[in-house]
Amino acid sequence: MCGRLNVIDDPGVRELCDQLDIALWPAQGQLFSRFIRAAQPVSVVRQIQGKRCMQNAIWWLLLEPTIEGFKPSRFASFNTRFDKLDVPSSAGFHAYRHSRCIIPVKGFGETEYQNGKPVHYYDLEAAPGEALALGGLCREWHHHGTGQHMLSCSVITLPPHPKLVDIHVKSMPLILPQQDDTLSLWLDESVTSTDIFSDLLAPQIPAKLIVTPIDKPASYQPIADPFLVEED
């Protein structure tokens, strides 16, 4: 999965937030943007001491302290690969067990590369009136010099799905099902045994996706007709 998210102020995104039973507007203000890049702030849903809330986090799980605060680590960590979740030394090991989050989005973007150069760009969106619940991880940071507290996050990525392999050959984001109790279990901080989530780590598409070839992420102008990818 590439580093861009679509979090527009959309009825589907708002309905998902209502389904999650959270206060829609965090103290910092919910972040809406057609194009959120890796290392930028994004709004995430967490559960803290049994209460759900929305907070803004830096979309880069590993941060480094500076004199004035924090900056994204030199190690890319906006995504956390599924096969690293059970590696004790990995950045997401503890977070997977104790601080999972959901990132409500309208969609996400993918870029395919060959020989280090982009060959095509795609926007993938939920159907009208719907949104996607991306499974993520978050970490809290405290700066001992300034006293600053920061929250960071990442999106869990899975192997490519056969329906999406022509769009992005390496990976796809974890899209959580919304029709059962998955969202509640994912946010439940008392669930620290991750065996219950094993089935989620296989590539799956639990919601319809509208896929549009675009010229480039910054302008997102369609260059061909959109097409529908049906859910599994």
UniProtKB/TrEMBL annotation:
Q: What is one GO biological process annotated to this record?
A: protein-DNA covalent cross-linking repair
Q: Which ranges of the sequence are coiled-coil? A: none
- Which EC numbers does the record give? 3.4.-.-
Q: Which GO terms describe its molecular function?
A: lyase activity; peptidase activity; single-stranded DNA binding
Q: Which family does it belong to?
A: Belongs to the SOS response-associated peptidase family.
Keyword presence, Hydrolase: yes
Specify the protein name. Abasic site processing protein
Q: Which UniProt keywords apply?
A: Covalent protein-DNA linkage, DNA damage, DNA-binding, Hydrolase, Lyase, Protease
InterPro entries tied to this protein:
SRAP, SRAP-like
